[in-house]
Task: structure prediction
Amino acid sequence: MERKNATREQVLLLLEQAGELSPALVRQVERQTGVPEAEIWGTARFYSLLSERSAALLLCRGLTCKLAGSRQLAAHLEQRGEPYRSVSCLGQCDRAPVALDQDLLVRHGRARGAVSPDDPDLPINLAGQDDASFAALHRARQLGPSAVLDTIEASGLQGRGGAGFPAHAKWRAVRAQASPLRHVVCNADEGEPGTFKDREIALRRPYRLIEGLAIAAWTVGAGTIHIFVRGEFPRVRAGLEQAIAAVGEALSGLDFRFVAGHGAYICGEETALIQAMEGRRGTPRIKPPFPTQVGLHGQPTLVHNVETLACLPSILLRGGEWFRAQGRTEPGSKLYCVTGHVHRPGVYELPLGVTLDDLVDQAGGYVGSPRAFCPGGASSGFLPMSMRDRPLDFQGLARIGSMLGSAGVVVMNDTVNMAQAALQQSIFFEDESCGQCAPCRIGTQVLRQALARFLAEGSPGALNGLDSVSWEMEQASLCGLGMVASRPYTSARRYFPGDFQPASSPEVS
Amino acid sequence: MNGMNHDISIRIDGHSVPARPGESVLDVARRAGAHVPTLCHDPRLEPAAVCRSCLVEIEGQARLQPACSFQASPGLVVRTDSPRVRKHRQVLASLYMADHRLADGLPQRSPAGSSLRGFAKAAGPLIQLHPVHSPRAGRPGDHNPYIGFDPGLCILCARCTRYCDQVHGAGAIALAERGRATTVSTNGGAGLLHSSCELCGGCVDTCPTGAMFDKKPSHHLPGQLRRVRTTCGFCGVGCQLDLNVKGGRVIKVTAPAPGQTINDGNLCVKGRFAYDFIHHQDRLTQPMLRDGDGRLRPSTWPRALERVATGLKRVQERWGSGALGFVSSSRCTSEENYLLQKLARAVFGTNNCHQCAAT
Result:
C-alpha cells in the first residue's frame, strides 16, 4: 500500500533519469515517492525502455521494416560488429529498415518519407508554414464554448487515433462532469506499425497541435494539458517543448506538462496511457467508467490523438461545414501513411474515404504486383487487392471486419507470403500484449506459435483450434489490443487460403 | 428494511431478481443461484476482471461483460448460460490449459487451489491446443520457511498481489514484466524475507491454483484433512481459524472463507504458521510448581492457584498493596483484562494494573 501523499506519478521519471534499473535504485525511488518497492520494480519491468537498457542498437522488426530488408540490415550490422537488439515497431516506417541508437535517434534508415505538397486548403497541410498567431484560439474564445461544441459537431470530426468516435461527444461528456478539475491529454504515443503521421504533425506543425490543445482545454474547462509523447520520439518532445516555450501571452492560464512513454505499444490505448501517466503499469482499465468520467487521477479527462487535435484550428477558422466537405465518404481530410511496396512512402493528406489506388497514386505507384494491404496498421489485419477500390474510412472498413484505425497503410506485393506476414504481426502482438487478461496473453502466444510451426513444418494441422482461439480473443479480451490481435491471422486465412495449404512457406523478402 | 426503497430488479436467465443499484451482476446472479465461474474474484478485493471467466451476455452490450465489475441497473437483462457464454468458457479454459498445469495429484497446498481445475472441468470438453511455455520467473532463491511460489501454476489473476496491497497493506509482491513473461515478483525477485512481506499467508489463501503455496505440509492430498474451527490464541482479537487435522495432529492452519468470521478470512503470520508448538515436546500442558529443591513438578490448577494467591497475599501483608502490580497479556480478551483489573483494584486495592498491548 502506498504511503499517504505518495508521489506515484514521479516513479517512471525518477527511474528514467537514474539509469540502469537495480533493486537498490528501486529502494531509493521508494524512499523518494512512498510507493512500495515491489510495485516500482513491477512497473519498471513493464516498460522496455526502462528494463532493457544497453548500448545495443534497436533494430525494428516491424512488418514494413521486414519488407524493406531489416534482415539485410541485421546482417550488415553483424558484419560491422555493431551489437543490436530486435524490437517492436519503432514508428519510423517511412525510413524502413530502421535501427535507432542509444539516444533513440535514427542511426540506420532511409530519408524521411514524403508528405502532401503545400496546399492552404488542406485542414492540416503538413508542408505548409506553421502559424503561431493563435487566430483559431481567439476565434474559439469569441464564439464561446457552446458555439465551439456546435462547430465541432457540425464538422463531423471523428477521433483519429483509431476508434473514430465523434469528438464532440467526448467534449460534451467532459463538460458535463461536476468536477472542476479536468484534464486534456494529447496522445502522442503513436505506435501502430505503419503509422508515423502524429510524429510528422508534431515536427512540422507544432503550433497547429498546441493550438488545438488550447482550444480543447478552453472549451471543456481544463486547466492542465498533458502531452504524452512516445519514448522513441525524443525529437518530437524537444520540438514541442521549444514551440511552447516560444509562445507568450496567447497560452497564459494553461499549464502544459510533458510525460514520456517508456516503450509499450499498449499505452496508446487511452486508459493504459492514463495508467502510465499515473506511474503505473500500462494495463488498460475496465470501461465503463470512461476517462471522460473517471480519468487521470480519477478526474474527468479528454484524451485525443494528435491528428484529431491538429484538425481543430482549421475547423474553427473555416467552419464545421467546410471541414465536413473535405471528406469523400466521411467528414474531413485524413492523414494516410503509406509504406511497404510503394515507390514514395510517406504521409498524404487526402479526403477521408479515398481508395487504396488513390492513395498509392500519390505515393508514386506500386512496387511490383500488389497482392495485399493493411488499411490501418497491424490491428486492421490484411485485405486482398480486390478491395483496392473500397473507401478507406472508419465505418466501411469496420463493416468488413477490418478497421481504418490510425490509417497506417502497408502494401505488400506478390513476393510476400501472407502466412509469413501474419506471423510477423502475431509476433508484434505477442510482444506488446500487456499480459493482464488471459485471452490476449495466452491467445497471442498460441497464435504465434501455431503460425511458426505451420511455416516450419508445412502442416495445416498446426493451425487446429486457431479459429476458436481467435474468436475468444475477439470476444473476451479486456481491451482493444486483444480484440484485434488475431485479425492478421483470420484475415490472411480468409483472403489468402492458398498460403495456408501444406508446405507453402517461401520467406518474406 | 434498510435500502428497500432503492431496490431494483434485473433479469437473470429469464428470472426477475431483486438487486441494489450498483451491486455487481456477479453478486446478484449468485444470490439467484446462477452458476457464474470466477478465478480472479475475491470479495475482499476491488474487481479486476482480468481472468475473464465470469463474462456474461448483457442485453444492449455488443461484447461479453465481466459480471464481477458490471453494475446492476434497473431492467438489466443478463444471460449466464447462453451458447455464446458456454463457448467462451470452453475456449478460455482451453487457453488456460495450454499455459498452466493443474495441481491435479499435487498435495493440497492452498485452500482455493482447485478453482482452476473446477472451472476447466465445468467448461466441458476442451480444445486441445499445443502447450505454450510462458517464461514466468519464479523465485528459486527464496528461502523463507512458509510461502512458496510455483510460476507454472500461476494464472496472473493478481489476487495475491491485490490482497497484499489492498487488504494486508504490505505491498511486498506485485505483478512484474509484461505479456507472456508477466509474473508475481518482489523488488528484484528477492526472497520474501528481504521484502516488506509479513508472511501473513493471505496470498496462499486467496490463490485459485495453488501457485502460492504453504511450504510446510507437503504430503497430504485434498480430502485427507479434517477441519476444526477454533479461535486463535495468539492475541485478543479473536480471529477464527481452521485447524487441519489428521490422526489427532494439526497438519496446518487455514483461514475460514471470507465473509464468514470476524477476521474475514485474514490471518497473521502467528495464527497461520506458528502452530509447531502444539505438538512440541517442550510444550507446557499442565500447571507446574517448583518444589523445595527448585525443581518444577506437575501439579493441579487448584494447587497452583493457591500458591499464587498465597504469594500475592504475603507481599500485600508485608509491603502493602502498592508493592503489587498486575500486568495482563495481549493474548487476553477484553473480558479477561477487565477481570484482571478488577482483581487488582477490588481484591488487592491497587491501581497498579497494565496490559502489555496498551503502550
